[in-house]
């Protein structure tokens, strides 16, 4: 439905309903008419549901519910005041909004409304449940002719459209991959650098032409297809060379006889922008199969105008990037995840500002404010210093242009063709977007994605005015820079005084996996950053770039930079420079479309020198307003837990790692090796002990070791098979590059690091799955040799066990521990030695000892189950879960915390206050 028809129908709707409005008799016809006549829904009877039953203490009925857009409607008669409470059938007094909220709470989560609309025929109240405490948007029936667009959310199937864009974009990526593979087979030297760059650039050009012909950019549909169709495979190469040359030549500079020689070629417009300027590109000959793939599958059978430039740019780049192609599938940053970065950084605030403008009643004032808002949008600058294929920049551009189009509708309430050209109307430009990317091909893709986005948004603006503005020629676009972002001086790309927002998704490379060049990149920034994850380099560069400005930054990062020993390295520097964390997404899975790529656990951190008055922590579906966000992404003071060699309180017991054999595997035995050795040399049985680490403990796996520290030389001489093993141990140690290991070659019968206690001990796995609520710890006999995959607490008591297995200790561990992939990595230096223990009364201590024993007793009920079985959230026995819950309550009481209502965040905040006090006492 066009704008003129909508306005006319809205005016008629006002006339039809200005003196009507009985709740029972008129509600359904009112909404069906609104949806059909004003909002253009062809079959509204199939779009909205009326009188849907909802179960409260009695059967109630929702007046209206729109499934596709998640809208709930509570309709009242024209004689009702939407602000006043109305008595319900159960005697409660509720306003229409409260009544709708009550219905919403009774629905399954998947069906709860995003929007609640209350209406009394004279006025609409719109409540956005994403912001439940904000004031509703109010629209009076008499103003619907100019305010109808504010009801478009009722029919806006943006999520459905987004899913379609995603599928179209992925299909487009698959087509590009097929074209790439066919082209690559035709190159004489496909592995050469020139051929690699040529095929990438050729694919960019082909994609642009396919998009341009479907989107009408070339002037009419199918121009690219119709031109190439006249050539057989043998002549197609030359046809493309000629086409690219024409597209890069201004019409006035072309061969004056071109139209006579090749009229279809002459019809192509001048493109500009550098897209077709490189004449040195190598184009291979075509085959019949390649010609058919391009003309039939890629052109005839596919509509490129429907791709999402945000998704497709990343898919396109990954499809043609040899590294990502080897992963077996395409991958991209989802639009949902991009919005986790840009929404709280700037987009939510801009949307709120526009919504406030829309409430202005006076036309002149409304136009003035909308114009000022458009100017504001046009003066914002955005910088992604790890932009890849430009998806963050592209999605931001699309969002800004959509806001601008909304503002344009307010500025030009009566649009007509005589308002001017596109450059007179549109002010937001791709020139506002800057990026750095190390891969030359990704730079080309980023530019192309932005051009496609610009084209699509021009079409949306044209629809407002029924205009016929030309998109071509492209404007030269140079704001995506090729280079190493950790080496480039960012001010040379965009001076910091001209920048508003920095954002992006820098590379995820852990310090152990950094190349020598990448380690050098980090040390080039600061010697203090040694041992830090690669992504931290962008945090440091952003910190330096933002200095003395109001710039705000938001990066996606692996969650490792907020855990373990990474925190003291990076965040000590950031906090010392007065950086504030303004919002953060706690750890979540950053999914990828690549078939072989592991899920990465990420955080998003928004930071700046400016301190926002409202700070937000996003944790799953919860959003918490807090006073401060610490580097651990919790509501706590900016305290950093540093590595320490001994417990923070001198009276605490010391834990240590298990023993290290450094034996090349020759002192370690499995079941079969143990049995064979004892059978052949019975004397060895006295020197074989069970050997245990984290995995052995958790999975009830049995391994053994030769423990020869008390074995006399005369005894060893009687064990030739053991002596053979010791020779191999000696050889293994001599082959080591470490001198300390080599020195142990003289004592092959001994472990290089013997930390085995002479008393029973508590074993704490160094690595444990994050799926478990509790790290499974266990008491172990002194005759079991602990290896370095475990921490051991000699002579541990039931009280020690109760505290360490409690939710208080687990909450501390989850906050400060490092990770091994996504698993917990329990560290003595970070977790245990810094942990603030409670000061219980004797009665409280006895209670904890009792609940700790109950945990052990509950485990004993299942002797055939491993700790992995017992602590799997899906199979944990009821008795064990209850025992842990009782222990949690007993420990919380010892800390002085109320059992009811204390969340894990509360527990961590309490522990950090205790830790802060302990640190102060040390000084």
From TrEMBL:
Q: Which intervals hold domain MmeI-like helicase spacer? A: 198-276
MmeI-like DNA-methyltransferase domain residues: 366-618
Which top EC class applies here? transferase
* Limits of the MmeI-like N-terminal domain: 9-186
**GO biological process entries:** methylation
What EC number(s) does its UniProt record assign? 2.1.1.72
Q: Which Pfam families match?
A: MmeI_C, MmeI_hel, MmeI_Mtase, MmeI_N, MmeI_TRD
Q: Which residues form the MmeI-like target recognition domain?
A: 636-839
Key word Lipid metabolism present: no
The GO terms this record gives for MF are: endonuclease activity; site-specific DNA-methyltransferase (adenine-specific) activity
Q: Which InterPro entries match?
A: MmeI_C, MmeI_hel, MmeI_Mtase, MmeI_N, MmeI_TRD, N4_N6_ade-DNA_methylase, SAM-dependent_MTases_sf
> Which UniProt keywords are given for this protein, alphabetically ordered?
Endonuclease, Hydrolase, Methyltransferase, Nuclease, Transferase
Instruction: Give start and end of each MmeI-like C-terminal domain.
Output: 842-919
* Reaction(s) this enzyme catalyzes, per UniProt: a 2'-deoxyadenosine in DNA + S-adenosyl-L-methionine = an N(6)-methyl-2'-deoxyadenosine in DNA + S-adenosyl-L-homocysteine + H(+)
Q: What is this protein called?
A: site-specific DNA-methyltransferase (adenine-specific)
């Amino acid at each position: 439905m066009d704008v003129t028809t909508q306005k006319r129908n809205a005016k008629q709707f006002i006339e039809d309903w200005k003196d009507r409005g009985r709740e029972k008799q008129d509600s359904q016809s009112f909404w069906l008419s609104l949806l059909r006549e004003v909002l253009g829904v062809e079959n509204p009877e199939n779009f909205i549901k009326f009188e849907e039953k909802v179960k409260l203490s009695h059967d109630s009925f929702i007046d209206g519910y729109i499934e596709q857009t998640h809208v709930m409607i509570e309709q009242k008669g024209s004689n009702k005041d939407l602000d006043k409470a109305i008595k319900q059938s159960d005697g409660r007094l509720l306003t229409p909004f409260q009544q709708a909220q009550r219905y919403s709470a009774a629905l399954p989560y998947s069906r709860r409304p995003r929007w609640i609309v209350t209406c009394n025929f004279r006025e609409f109240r719109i409540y956005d449940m994403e912001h439940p405490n904000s004031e509703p948007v109010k629209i009076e029936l008499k103003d619907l002719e100019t305010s109808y667009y504010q009801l478009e959310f009722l029919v806006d199937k943006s999520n459905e459209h987004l899913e379609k864009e995603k599928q179209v974009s992925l299909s487009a990526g698959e087509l590009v991959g097929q074209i790439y593979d066919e082209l690559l087979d035709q190159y004489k030297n496909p592995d050469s650098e020139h051929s690699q760059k040529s095929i990438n650039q050729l694919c960019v050009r082909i994609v642009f032409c396919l998009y341009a012909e479907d989107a009408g950019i070339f002037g009419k549909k199918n121009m690219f297809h119709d031109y190439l169709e006249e050539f057989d495979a043998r002549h197609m190469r030359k046809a493309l060379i000629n086409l690219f040359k024409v597209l890069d030549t201004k019409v006035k500079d072309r061969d004056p006889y071109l139209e006579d020689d090749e009229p279809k070629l002459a019809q192509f417009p001048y493109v500009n922008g550098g897209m077709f300027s490189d004449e040195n590109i190598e184009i291979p000959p075509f085959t019949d199969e390649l010609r058919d793939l391009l003309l039939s599958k890629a052109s005839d059978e596919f509509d490129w105008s429907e791709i999402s430039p945000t998704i497709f740019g990343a898919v396109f780049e990954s499809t043609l990037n040899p590294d990502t192609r080897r992963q077996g599938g395409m991958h991209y940053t989802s639009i949902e995840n991009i919005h986790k970065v840009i929404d709280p950084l700037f987009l939510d605030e801009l949307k709120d500002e526009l919504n406030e403008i829309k409430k202005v009643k006076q036309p002149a004032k409304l136009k003035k404010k909308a114009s000022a808002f458009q100017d504001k949008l046009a003066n914002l600058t955005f910088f992604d210093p790890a932009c890849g294929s430009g998806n963050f920049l592209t999605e931001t551009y699309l969002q800004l242009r959509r806001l601008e189009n909304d503002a344009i509708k307010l500025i030009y309430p009566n649009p007509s063709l005589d308002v001017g050209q596109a450059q007179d109307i549109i002010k937001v430009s791709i020139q506002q977007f800057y990026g750095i990317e190390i891969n030359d091909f990704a730079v080309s893709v980023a530019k192309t994605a932005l051009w496609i986005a610009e084209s699509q948004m021009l079409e949306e603006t044209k629809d407002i005015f029924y205009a016929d503005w030309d998109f071509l020629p492209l404007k030269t676009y140079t704001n995506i820079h090729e280079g190493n972002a950790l080496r480039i001086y960012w001010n040379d790309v965009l001076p910091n005084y001209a920048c508003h927002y920095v954002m992006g998704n820098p590379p995820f490379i852990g310090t152990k996996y950094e190349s020598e060049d990448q380690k050098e990149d980090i040390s080039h920034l600061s010697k203090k950053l040694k041992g830090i994850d690669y992504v931290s380099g962008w945090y440091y560069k952003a910190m330096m770039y933002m200095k003395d400005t109001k710039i705000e930054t938001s990066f996606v990062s692996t969650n490792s930079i907020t855990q373990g020993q990474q925190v003291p390295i990076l965040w000590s520097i950031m906090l010392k420079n007065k950086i504030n964390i303004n919002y953060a997404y706690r750890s979540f899975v950053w999914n990828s479309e690549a078939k072989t790529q592991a899920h990465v656990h990420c955080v998003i951190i928004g930071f700046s020198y400016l301190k926002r008055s409202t700070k937000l922590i996003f944790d799953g579906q919860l959003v918490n307003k807090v006073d401060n966000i610490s580097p651990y992404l919790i509501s706590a003071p900016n305290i950093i837990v540093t590595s320490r060699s001994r417990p923070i309180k001198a009276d605490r017991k010391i834990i240590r790692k298990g023993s290290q054999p450094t034996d090349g595997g020759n002192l370690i035995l499995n079941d079969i090796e143990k049995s064979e050795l004892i059978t052949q040399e019975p004397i060895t049985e006295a020197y074989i002990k069970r050997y245990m680490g984290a995995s052995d403990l958790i999975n009830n796996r049995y391994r053994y070791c030769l423990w020869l520290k008390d074995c006399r030389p005369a005894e060893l001489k009687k064990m030739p098979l053991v002596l053979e093993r010791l020779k191999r141990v000696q050889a293994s140690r001599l082959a080591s590059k470490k001198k300390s290991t080599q020195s142990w070659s003289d004592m092959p019968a001994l472990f290089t690091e013997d930390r085995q206690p002479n008393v029973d001990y508590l074993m704490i796995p160094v690595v444990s799955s994050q799926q478990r609520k509790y790290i499974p710890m266990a008491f172990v006999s002194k005759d079991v040799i602990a290896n370095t995959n475990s921490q051991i607490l000699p002579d541990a008591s039931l009280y020690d066990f109760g505290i360490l297995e409690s939710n208080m200790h687990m909450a501390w561990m989850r906050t400060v521990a490092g990770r091994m992939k996504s698993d917990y990595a329990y560290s003595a230096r970070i977790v245990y030695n810094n942990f603030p223990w409670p000061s219980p009364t004797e009665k409280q201590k006895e209670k904890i000892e009792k609940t700790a024993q109950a945990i052990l007793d509950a485990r004993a009920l299942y002797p055939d189950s491993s700790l992995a079985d017992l602590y799997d959230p899906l199979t944990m026995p009821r008795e064990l879960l209850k025992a842990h819950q009782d222990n949690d309550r007993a420990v919380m009481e010892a800390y002085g915390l109320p059992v009811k209502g204390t969340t894990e965040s509360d527990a961590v905040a309490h522990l950090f206050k205790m830790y802060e006090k302990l640190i102060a006492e040390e000084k």
